[in-house]
Amino acid sequence: MNHFNISEIGRFAKEVVKEAGALLVKLRKEPMVLEEKHDHSDLVTFADKEIESFLVKKILSTYPQHGIVGEEGIFDQGDTYYQTQWVIDPIDGTTNFIHNFPFYGISVGVVHKGVGMIGVVYNPVTDELFYAEKDNGAFVNDVRLHLDQPITLKESLISTAMFWENPNTKNTMHPSVIQIYKETRGLRMFGGAAISLCEVAKGTLNAYIVPALSTWDYAAGIIILKEAGGTITRLNGQPVSLEYGGSLLASHPSIHRDLLGILSKH
Ligand code: 2AM
Ligand code: CA
Ligand code: CA
Ligand code: CA
């Protein structure tokens, strides 16, 4: 009954994210209206809510039977079970958006019966639209992404987020982070999960490693990276769920095992 037509839904998802992207570019030029969510570093703007509302309206007018999980909670799922669920982050990298630091984007994933089927991420600064369908490859503006050049840990550039709490001494860097820093070309923190995952899919970054995220931060990005040939697990090597958030070790396939080895030591 609830047939999932991946190419039709994918085409729609791409279109709707492009439209939301144009709206985001327009909203960026308007005066910034922002408020704190939990503290001074956890912010939400008028644009986050506008983009999520726009996406929810568009999705439900075409697919009224689908559910939507979004960071700003515009659509209330209640206790209803939806076979097909859209997992959206209207602006991933809100702090970057506010500061005009060019590393933020719109992230939309489509999950059917718990399986990630479609991922769309739009970077309005570079005008890059990342798109992937399960088993059908990953693309940036219609150019195929594929991680087929092997790399070593020594020649890789790693992205992470926030300083990890040191389990022994607190308030200093986690020993895994220090070791990864020493054994690679370097560590970067850009403040955006979705774009980080897409950059790993492009090969400009070689891994994205984070201790905790929500599903909307990575739903689209992990489908894109997986279809580009990347390897994605939790930090302990377990498979990543699209139903609940958690850690992420998302990398080029040739360095995943080495990174897991480092993470398991500390
Ligand atoms: P956001 O911009 O959509 O909130 C920042 O390192 C990355 O982590 C961003 O992708 C950010 O998404 C996400 N994040 C999740 N929870 C966060 C929080 N409480 N504070 C800041 N960033 C958070
Ligand atoms: Ca947020
Ligand atoms: Ca986010
Ligand atoms: Ca967000």
From TrEMBL:
GO molecular-function term, one example from the UniProt record: metal ion binding
Enzyme class per UniProt: hydrolase
Reaction it catalyzes: a myo-inositol phosphate + H2O = myo-inositol + phosphate
One Gene Ontology biological process: inositol metabolic process
InterPro entries: IMPase, Inositol_monoP_metal-BS, Inositol_monophosphatase-like, Inositol_monophosphatase_CS
Keyword Plastid: no
The protein's Enzyme Commission number: 3.1.3.25
Binding site for Mg(2+): E71, D89, I91, D92, D217
Organism superkingdom: Bacteria
Cofactor: Mg(2+)
Keyword Iron among UniProt keywords: no
Keyword terms, alphabetized: Hydrolase, Magnesium, Metal-binding
Family membership: Belongs to the inositol monophosphatase superfamily.
Name the record gives this protein: Inositol-1-monophosphatase
Organism: Pseudoneobacillus rhizosphaerae
Lineage, uppermost ranks: Bacteria, Bacillati, Bacillota, Bacilli, Bacillales
The gene coding this protein: suhB_1
